[in-house]
Prior knowledge:
Helix content is 43%, strand content 16%.
Amino acid sequence: MLTAVASARAILTSLHEVMASRSGAQAKLNRIVDVIGENLNSEVCSIYLLREGMLELFATRGLEQAAVHVTRLAVGEGLVGTIAQNIETLNLAEAAAHPDFAFRPETGEERFHSFAGVPIVRRQRAVGVVAVQHVDPRRYEEVEIEALQTVAMVLAELIANAELIDDEDVAGVPDHLTGPDRLKGQTLVKGLAVGQAVFHQPRVTIEHVVAEDTEAERQRVYRAFDKMREQIDRMASQAEFGVGGEHEEVLETYRMFAYDEGWSRRINEAIDSGLTAEAAIERVQQRTRMRMRQIDDPLLADRMHDLEDLSNRLLRIVSGQLGTAASLGLKGDAILIARNLGPAELLEYDRRRLKGVILEEGSLTAHVVIVARAMGIPVVGRVRALRGKVREGDTLLVDGDQGVIDVRPAPSLVEAFEARFAKNRERQAHYATMRDVEPITRDGQRITVMINAGLRDDMPMLPLTGADGIGLFRTEFQFLVSATMPQRERQQRLYRDVLDAAGDRPVVFRTVDIGGDKVLPYLRHNDGETEENPAMGWRALRVALERDGLLKVQARALIEAAAGRTLNVMFPMVTEPWEFDAAKAVFESQVAFLRKQKKVLPEAIRYGAMLEVPALAECLDMLAPRLSFLSIGTNDLTQFLFAADRAHPKLAERYDWLSPAILRFLARVVRDVAPHGTALTVCGEMGGRRLEALALLGLGITRLSITPAAVGPIKELIRTIDLGEIRNAMAGWLREPHADMRSVVAQWASAQGIDCD
C-alpha cells in the first residue's frame, strides 16, 4: 500500500496534467475518475456535482455509463446525499447496511459492497461528492481517505473554474445552515436590528490548491507557525489574558496545540503531497472535523474545537489575511459576530452600517457593551457555537429586547419583525418628544438626568435628548481609538469641542481610565507582568498616579480647554482619600504652572471622585467634605462588591443590581453623603433601566447620568412617580428585604400603574 503522501502525490501529479490539458470540463472529469480509480486500486470512482439543487452523477469509472447525467439524488438522500448534507466522510465495509443507503438500479452498483465518499467543499458548502466502491467488503485505509480528501479539494477548484456548479446555490449546505433557525442568548443592549452576518475575523477562502513549489509552501507554513506561536506567547503575557481559571486553561491548550509536532507534521505531509500551504492546513482541518463528530466526551470535543480555532488562526496568518472585518470595510447593513470584542475593536467599525452585535461571550457591564449602548447598537451575548450555525452573509434578525436571533428567517417572520421595528421607531419617536419635557415627579421633585459620552460624535445627543448635561465623559475613548498616545494639543481640541457643544450645560470629564479590558497597545504597564485579575489590578487612577506624566498632560489639556469656563473633573476608581488628594495636586500644580505662563484659567474647577471600590464608602466622612460631587459607578461597584468579574460569562447574570446587598450599600452612601451637601450621581448602566431607576429614586438619588437612548424612557418614568411613595416603600423593603427584590419592586410598580418595561 502506498503511503498517504505518495498516494496523494501520485494522484495530484496526474490531476495536474489533466487540469493543464485543453480538453473540456466533462472530458477532464472522465479522466479524473480513471486516475483516482487506478491509483487507489478501486473498481469504482464516481463524481457527483450539485446542479439545480440535486446531486447529479457527472462522471464514473465502474458504474453504468448510461447513468451519467441521469442518476440524481437529493441532498440528504442516499449515502451521497448524506455526505453532502452533513459535509462529512463515510467509509463503509458494507454500504447496503447503512440506514441511508438508497439503491439506484440504473447504475449497476448492486455487486459492489464497500463504499467511501468525501464531500467536495466550496466556500464552506458541499457542492459535490467524490466516491469510490469495491466488490469486496472492506473499509478503505486512512491513507486512501486522505487521498480522496485531497482530490476533493482539487475538484472544488476545477469545477468552480469550469463553472460546473452555481456558486450561489446553497442547496448543498446542511439543513441546519440553510433553513430558518432561532438562537437564544442574553440581552446586553436592547433594540432591534436587521442585517447580514459579518464575522469579526472572516473565514479564509482557499482559491489555489495545487502547489507550484513545494519547498516554498513549506517555508510559508514554517513562518506562519513561528508567527502564530509568537502570538500565543504574547497573549499569555498580556494582562487581559492572565486572569487564571478558564482563560488560563484555554491558553495552555492553545500552547499545547501550537507546539504540537504531530499537527505540524501532518500539514507538512499534506504539502509533500502537492498542496499549497492553505490547502494543506484545510486538509488537516477536515480530518479534525471528522474526529470531532466521533467524540462523545464534551471536554475532548471542546479541545478539538480549540484546535479548529487555532487552525483558522494559522490559515489567516499563512494567507496574509490578518485584518478584521473592520479593516476590510462593511459593504451594507451588518450584524457583527465575534467570540468577544474589546471597546477599541468595536469603535473601528463604520457606525452607519453596523446595526447589531452578537457575541459568544460578553456580559452586561463589559466595556464593549457600554460602548455599544452609547452607540445605540443592540447586542446579544452568550450565544454558543455561532460559527456552526451562521454563515457569512446570512440574513439575521436581532431582537435585543428578548435576547433572540432569527437566522435566515422566513419572509413572514421578516414582515412581522419589520412591523415590530416600525412600532419600536414609533416608541423612539414618542421618547424624542420628551426632549423638552422637564423630568419632574408627580409630587413636584425635579430630577437631574444627564448622559454618558466619550466621543465627539456623541455630542449631538445632548440637544436631541434634552439632557441636563454630561454626567460622565469617558476621556479614555480617545486613547482607545488612537494608534499612538494622543498629544496634549489633540486632547485639548477634543475637550474644547465638547465644552463648546455643551454650551451652558455642565460636562464632567473623567480622567483616563485604562487597564482591565481597556489595554492600550502602545502603553504597557506593570512592567509587563501578568496580572491574575486585571479588573482589580493596575488600572484607572492607579496607573495615572504612577505615570504622572500621563495625568499631567491630560490635566493641562483640560485646564486650557476650559479657559474662562467651569471645569468639572472626576477621578476614577478612588480607593482611599489620599489618592484623590494626589490626583487633585497634579491638577493644582498645572494650574500654578499655567498661571505663571499668563494663560487664561478656568473660572472654577470642581473636583469629584467615582465611588466604585467599596473601601471608599468607609472613608466618606473624611472625603466628602473635600468633594464638589461624588459619582457612583455601579458597573465596577457591583463586581467589586460581589467579587464577581463582570466579564466572566458564568457570572454575567448571577448578581442582580436590585439585590438587597446593592440597595443597602447605596442607601448607606446616600445617608453618609447627605450631611456634607455633596452632589451625588449614579452614572453606571443601572440608572438607564426603568425598574432600576425607580429603585434608585426610592433610595434618595436624584441625579442620574445614563446612555442617551435611555433619557426619553427615564424622563417618562420619572413623570409617573410619586417620590414620597416609592421612598416609603423602599424604606420598608430595606428593613426586611426579600430575597427576590426585583419581583417585589416590579409588583409594586405594576400595582401603582407604573410601566417599568
